[in-house]
């Protein structure tokens, strides 16, 4: 996205939008409002200009319309992303970081520290918006702009209350705990953690309930109603010929609605609790698709597009005739979306095959985190140095018959690197660990434990226990969210595999039926009129057949719409089950292409039934 906004940044236009600029600054977006709006305008105007050139070169108005439509969508997305999707993601991260901060503060205070010292030492492991705020507090304390930390917290409480009032309450409890001692201080600190954890869980549960409702609405409004409307398009186009055109339908069903659903999917992914933090793209074993793979996908697509293009050039798709209804036309038009679907399936299959083992290994390690934290906590309690714990844990796994577990391989590699790299553990964790592990949560947890281990192995053990407790609670919360979203998951799976393909095929068959029946009636009326007026040629039509949108255009629009819907719903399905994970999204999209096979069976099966019925009842043979 950065290269896109760099285009807007290069424009000399500069203006101020205070509210929007303040929101972007708060969420740490690297560009101002003027840059975002400049980028949106540039994309729209640039697309329109390209469309004008293409229209003049190829004398096709549809090219200009298409470019303008794509420009509108691109402009909308470049505007929506920073002000909504990016902001939402940052705020969710902000709330999660508040929870982690309370846990860090509690640990430092249990080490007989004070709030200023806890804040200073927590800064290294704090990220995002909260890190910037803490840096500002420490800087202003150094400048004596605040008398004490309590005054700084009171000033920031206005901001924190907007996003997490429980964070402010927990900070107040910790301030009291810092002034207390013994058992009383421990009880207060435990209460502060329990309070913010409880509120966090309740908020996520409510969020999952709202998401479940919104998914049903999105599928109904964004998929069911539009496809049903397409069944009526042939009739509606007769009465509204100036409004219902192929270009308008193309924009609505192939650009606008998919864009709406795509933004909704991103919005859902931003709100969904992220349990998994695996980024296999940063792993050294990661195998991205090569140019050869993309060439194979492109060749497959061309093999489907070329015969379709040749056929459509030879047969004018805008002219409604009986050729518009024959099996050859339906087949050649079907080839175009079929080629897109098959290319996506092939590329997705190759990507998954190359990286499935890597992802599964990391997934097993991430699921094993609570057990690893138990081991770390036990050995830290026994005062075993951090450098030796990795080897001890792998020995325990091996002793219990889990020597092939991916956690053993990861910990062995960490031990090997520590033994051969001339660096201390803290530097290794900060610099080299990310080259070995692509599990962000594992890396962050290990960094926190090592940071506390520098002060006290006993306190590091407490940290490991608290992180484990938090991790277990989040796993339980994720299970609850999956339970709440399970009906939505079933609805999406049914929509991909049955409802959307069936309705799409039915819409195409209905368009064939309506247009052919109207054409047949018009010809029969004209024949009857001529029989009663011998020697005279009378043109009598039920309606103007030329104003009806050709079934060829409708089949193309519906075919592309189905492919887009399958991709977007596949993304949503993966997000519901696993949160935002690129591998799981690709895997879900690849698996969802089964829906296009169902569509194919329904389309050609329905076509056979439709033509058999017409032949037997009206005597029309195509």
Tags for this model:
single chain; elongated; 81% helix; 21 helices
Structure description:
- This protein is an all-alpha fold and 622 residues long.
- Helix content is 81%, strand content 0%.
- It contains 21 helices and no strands.
- It has helices spanning 2-10, 18-26, 33-58, 61-110, 115-122, 128-142, 149-163, 165-179, 182-239, 246-271, 291-314, 327-367, 369-381, 386-399, 406-420, 425-436, 440-453, 457-531, 551-578, 582-592, 594-618.
- The longest helix is centred in the last third of the chain and has 75 residues, at 457-531.
- The two termini are 51 Å apart.
What's the arrangement of secondary structure elements?
Elements: H1 2-10, H2 18-26, H3 33-58, H4 61-110, H5 115-122, H6 128-142, H7 149-163, H8 165-179, H9 182-239, H10 246-271, H11 291-314, H12 327-367, H13 369-381, H14 386-399, H15 406-420, H16 425-436, H17 440-453, H18 457-531, H19 551-578, H20 582-592, H21 594-618
Helix pairs in contact: 1-3, 3-4, 4-5, 4-8, 4-9, 4-10, 4-18, 7-8, 8-9, 9-10, 9-18, 9-19, 10-19, 11-12, 12-19, 12-20, 12-21, 13-14, 13-18, 14-15, 15-16, 16-17, 17-18, 18-19, 18-21, 19-20
